[in-house]
Amino acid sequence: MHDRKMILSGLLIFLGIITVPIWYSLSFGNNREMPELKLPATARACVAPISYMKTSHMKLLAEWRDQAVRSGNRTFTAYNGRTYAISLTATCLQECHDDKEAFCDRCHAYNGVKSPNCWDCHIDPKQATKLPRQGAATQTGASNDLR
Amino acid sequence: MIFDRKTFLRISGLSLAAVAAGRAAGASDETSLNEGTPLADSPAVQRLAMVIDTKKCLEKEECDLCVKACHRSHNVPAIDDRRHEVKWIWKEPFKEAFISEQSEFANATFQEKPFVVFCNHCDRPPCVRVCPTKATWKREDGIVMMDWHRCIGCRYCMAACPYGSRSFNWVDPRPYIKSLDPEFPTRTKGVVEKCTFCPERLAKGKLPACVEACTPKAMAFGDLEDPHSQVREWLHSRFAIRRKAELGTSPEVYYII
Amino acid sequence: MFMFEKALAGSRRYWGWIFVLLAVIAAGFVCYLRQLSFGLGITGMGRDVSWGLYIAQFTFLVGVAASAVMVVLPYYLYDYAVFSKITILGEFLTISAVAMCVLFIFVDMGQPTRIMNVLLYPTPVSMMFWDMIALSGYLVLNIVITLVTLSAERKSVAPPAWIKPIILVSIPWAISIHTVTAFLYNGLPGRSFWLTALLAPRFLASAFAAGPALLILLCMIMRKLTSFDAGREPIQKLALIVMCALGAHLFFVLMEIFTVFYSGIPEQMQHFRYLFWGLDGHAALVPWTWLSAGSALVALGLLIWPRTRKDEKILAVICVLVCLSLWIDKGIDLIVGGFVPSPLGVITEYAPTLPEVAITLGIWAFGFLSLTVFYKITLSVRATLDG
């Protein structure tokens, strides 16, 4: 090999660049710690085992979506026998996780999960209360800030 | 066998095709379980329909309680631009709602009178036939339902509907919703929407929002297969017409005269 | 394998053309990003006219794509050697046209990220499902055919035997892609303008006129700008095909007009009235319709008369008239005319907006870019063989 020096140094530089995420955070520290998630205030039991929810809540939500919309089954019987209404806003957000921002959004933002576009349509109850009710005087005039 | 580039490409191509075929077969299995299963929460029903008593409805021509109730409870946006408007239920003059009944003298007094119109939940819906993703389908209870998670916004169903019942979200609807009801989601831009006979209310044993809101009780909703239902009674009592019945869509919204 | 490097060596004029096309594509792309964020409301479409310029272009281009069969069938099925040099040009035109079709459908969708739903949840009863299958299949077919035949030509060998059945399959497939596109329209009970058994034959006839006309123009342009000369005979034969197809198309249109106006059903007449004379003061498409009709009649007359058909300068004008006429007829008149008046008898006129036109031009530019690259590769391969 005539270009041994060039090839080896090129390889070393490439390896250095590609492993940046590892040695950079090891040596310079990482300010991004796991965020503190605000757990539900009153609800104690989950619709599924917590370990399952941590890994697969998106699968559960997808199944709920198909059950409610496509099959017309709007009641879910949990593993502990309790029944819940299948509803992202009414059950997930109103009955259990009362603070979407401090629970759902914090973890999603930390993990860089951009995809849940559920909120393009489904409503965060906290957002809904900020809006002028029908007939009431509009003090905030915030009808354009529905997001 | 010489393992050259050609062989490599051939084997990779075949493997990819096999994986894709396996995935596709698996995906279609998933959906067949979900579609068409009977409703869990409602009693066994077979043919939901609506009957409108036009005499009662026309007593107060400016009344729009049904429209307000539906659009409020479903977060339907109020868009001024006629091109972009979204409406699930509205009032249309007779000469347009019943265009195939045009006549210079036979129904001269009726021509401009407002008739409430919405999706007819046809028995043989052309919109369901054309939807490429089954984002709209006919349930076993007769409702022509919509899945806004699946709709790709191709608007083929809008071209197919002979009644103009469907609206598309040309823009983001949220800024145009006067009051947001958290009990029902909004839709997002890029999907088609229409009246769905309120299955979320039916699941709780309630009547559709428009029927409940109608103070003169000009709307009846029920199962045509039940001979004692209100819809059958009303249809038995007076002459009824349907919109564009000659097209073979078999609309399930009847107007008794 | 794809010989793209041949498209990178060109004159200043060639690169100037490429950069103009890239600029138009970039402008269209920027407008599309705006459309993605604002919604399809940025176009001129609306609740009553829910399909517009995008679907109109798609319909026209599916016809152009299918028209390659007019050179493939005689050459491969009947060994008609006259078309030997231009068959591959027709096939490349098909690939560009199908690519544009796919792009036009994509930009017309409200939720383009969900496009895989059509394949994940197949719905055989829907014509749009079959359209997607037919178009994608035809694209793959033609890519394989052009790749294999051009590679063989470069190596100065005959193409492998297995390509022949594939080419033969592409012949009925071409007919099917345009038939299924017609089925999109003529199976809808509520749209009386499209509810005619004659729609698929009309589509095929106009396709077999517009496609070869476009091919003639492309051959003439290449004769002027490059060293490639298709020769007099192929162009004259293509002109005959254009003449027959255009004649058939005009006959079909006259048949429709007779059926609609002699039977006198108001709902059916209204669409024709709107297009030809306007309705209730709404007459936006009337000049377009008469331009289309007039161009077609003039073109047909000049094609039938041998003196004008054989004069290549006049033939160029004829082909431009044919393309213009059929682009208006199939693109604008057919789609918009189907929606006006609405099934409720209401008239809502349609006019595309500037972003909509920019996106449309961007996709056309992409089509011309791909066509330029394909033809450059072909001509380079042939130049190397000759020289």
How would you characterize this protein structure?
The complex is a heterotrimer of chains A (147), B (257) and C (387). By secondary structure, chain A is mainly alpha-helical. In chain A, 48% of the residues lie in helices and 4% in strands. Chain A has a domain at 57-123. Chain A has a two-stranded antiparallel sheet with strand order 1-2. In chain A, strand 1 (75-77) and strand 2 form a beta hairpin. Chain B is of the alpha+beta class and 257 residues long. Helices cover 29% and strands 14% of the residues of chain B. Chain B has nine helices and ten strands. Chain B has a four-stranded mixed beta sheet. The longest helix of chain B has 30 residues, at 5-34. The radius of gyration of chain B is 22 Å and the shape is elongated. The model of chain B is unreliable at 28-42 (pLDDT under 50). Chain C has 387 residues and is mainly alpha-helical. Chain C has a single domain (4-386), classed as Formate dehydrogenase/DMSO reductase fold, CATH 1.20.1630.10. Helix content of chain C is 73%, strand content 0%. Chain C contains 14 helices and no strands. In chain C, helix 9 (232-263) packs across helix 11 (286-304). Chain C is globular, with a radius of gyration of 21 Å. The two termini of chain C are 21 Å apart. Chains in contact: A-B, B-C. The interface between B and C is large, with 52 and 49 residues.
CATH topology call of chain B: Alpha-Beta Plaits
- How many discrete domains of chain C? 1
DSSP, total strands of chain C: 0
Per DSSP, what share of the residues of chain C sits in E-state strands of 2 or more residues? under 5%
**Strand residues, percent of chain B:** 5-15%
Distance between the ends of chain C: 21 Å
Structural class of chain C: mainly alpha
Domain count of chain B: the total is 1
Précis, in short:
The complex is a heterotrimer of chains A (147), B (257) and C (387). With 147 residues, chain A is mostly helical.
Q: What is this structure's SSE topology?
A:
The complex is a heterotrimer of chains A (147), B (257) and C (387).
Chain A: H1 4-18, H2 20-28, H3 50-70, E1 75-77, E2 83-85, H4 88-96, H5 101-110, H6 125-130
Chain B: H1 5-34, E1 48-53, H2 54-57, H3 65-73, E2 89-93, H4 94-97, E3 114-118, H5 126-130, E4 136-138, E5 144-146, H6 156-160, E6 167-168, E7 192-193, H7 199-202, H8 209-213, E8 219-223, H9 230-237, E9 240-241, E10 253-256
Parallel strand pairs in B: 1-10
Antiparallel strand pairs in B: 1-8, 2-3, 4-5, 6-7, 9-10
Chain C: H1 12-38, H2 53-66, H3 69-78, H4 87-108, H5 117-120, H6 127-154, H7 163-186, H8 199-225, H9 232-263, H10 266-276, H11 286-304, H12 306-310, H13 312-339, H14 354-386
Helix pairs in contact in C: 1-14, 2-4, 2-7, 2-8, 2-13, 3-4, 3-7, 4-6, 4-14, 6-7, 7-8, 8-9, 8-13, 9-11, 10-13, 11-13
